[in-house]
Amino acid sequence: MLKFRAVFVVIGFLLTMTAAPADEPAANSGVTKVGVLAVVPESVSAAVAIRNASELTRRGDVFIQRTGMKVPLRPSDAFRWLVDFLGIRKGLDDDGAFALMAMSPDVELTSLVLAVPVKDFDAMSSNLKVSRDRLKAGEVVDRNDLGGPNPMQYVRYVSVRGNHLLMGGDREKVQEAASAPALNVSLPEELQRTLSDDDIVLFARQLGADNLSIAVHRIVEGLPPSTNESQAKTVKQLTKAAMDLRSVIAGIRLDGGLGVTFALNFDGEASRDFLTPIASKSSDLELSGLPNGRTIAMHSSTGDGDKSEGLARVLIDMLFHRMMSIAHSKLPAIEDSVITDLFGVAWEDFNGSRTGLYENQNPGRDGAFNFLAILEADDAEGFVAELPGLARFVNASTMTAQARAEMIDAEMIRGLVEDLGHTKYRTRRLAAVKLELIGAPALAALNEVRDSTDTETRIRARSIIDRIKSSEADTRKAFLDSNLLAKIEPRFVYLPNQEFRSGRSVDVVRMQLLGNDRSLAEGMKMLFGPEWNVIRLTTAGQHVLFFLGTETSIMDQAIAELQTGNAGNQVEERFAAFRRRGEPKRTAEFHLSVARLKELVDRQAEVPQSERAQTAKATSSMTSFGMSIEPQTIRFDLFSPYDDTKAIIGVFE
Fold this sequence. Notes:
- By secondary structure, this protein is of the alpha+beta class.
- It is built from 25 helices and 19 strands.
- Residues about 1-30, about 320-335, about 475-480 and about 610-615 have low confidence and may be disordered.
């Protein structure tokens, strides 16, 4: 919570550093203005820049008023004090760009250089007691040599860059700031476009490359060891790529809400090898196919599943462990890894996905939400055809070893072992996952081929044996302690062709909980209604649809739109501000109505379930988050409208 609060404190502080109108107008001396990115030299170690001080003051006042954000000073007060303290009010351009720059990594006071926009250099030179002809580009003036009172050490040296006066305490640093190429020449064109319109820009070079690598190590070390080649390779690549981080740049815009862009810039072979295969390929990422309605959250992603499978496995492993930690539960290592493997096998088939979380009209009767997922696959029908066979092995994984041996006979196990050497990669992968789900009863057959002359069979058999054996002790302990699956004993029943919707046959996966712990069932019923344990799935062209919830008309509409090719973009109108800000070639985006979610959470705490009927409503404002990946850049874009920003601030105050 303190980290989130700190973010808003920083924004509040930056708002206090914006300009107030000058006491007197200054004559325009014909100086051409430059953008905020042209003020900062490329060689800078760190910088904070403001595009237009007076405009940020106006926007900051509106932002504070609309969000209720508390700041110690109004935006103009602190700047008035700073300008007066430095004695540079006359000739100042209130509509220009300001920048405070650290020209060396140690960020000592004397290494700081302040850039202020000048409207009238004649008036500004009188502030400094410097003759006008000495204030010119490329020349550094030592104010101690002027014969008057010596200035403060950290503004002793002055120079000019374009229409900006540079002030600092080190001659070499001021000279470098005045003559080095501008930062904008080293940034991607699309990033330049976004940042040039932002109110505040922050930049740091070599910021925390070592710390980022350490953070990646810590995250990875918290995960169970994986013998999956793709996942293990991704972990190594991710750690090495973190060391290639060269700079971080962020932009903040206060216009209609809070807009933020954050980019990590890399330079090196390791990061290029890691990012190039998963780089954003197209600009057609959208939310089409998701029906417009009472959406509280939406998501869209694109990319080649087979290329990003390793990264997806790492991310789902991290997410799953976090969820288990929050639930104060855990899984045996074998079941943990199998869940990740099942996800990885599915992910390889998909080239993109879209999901939506919808509010029910009557949450007291039907549960709070409906969930719809639309997945793009090369072979949607083939993917669905494999699911009934997997259900049997998923059920076996939650049983004791003896029960598994009774359910899966030796002949079936031998067939799966033979498939480890199959010519089709997907058949080999599915066989490996099924054998891991079977667990200990498969060890005898696997040991028979651990020295096979077939390379694929030998490598996979040994990998599966190692995973099963290493998890036996952990499995026994987990079942005695707090193993979630042991408590709920889930069973999955796959029922094909159960319904007919919008011209398509719909299959049903029904989950049964045989254990004594009913808390999960009660919680899921509150979230998704009386049919919380029923997942509907079907195909439409190259799409696989999954639906969980009571309001099945949402699924009907999605099927119809995807089949006719009329999957409209009505929902897109709500994200116009985000679209203008974000990188067109996005890999993923996520939208959430924070204000509505906070309202629901508050109501959950205050209103009994029996009185929660008829509380759903359409949401117009949503906070949007997007990610784009280039071979040497990872970029994040965020836009949060006033209502959502106010809700976020309210949570962390």
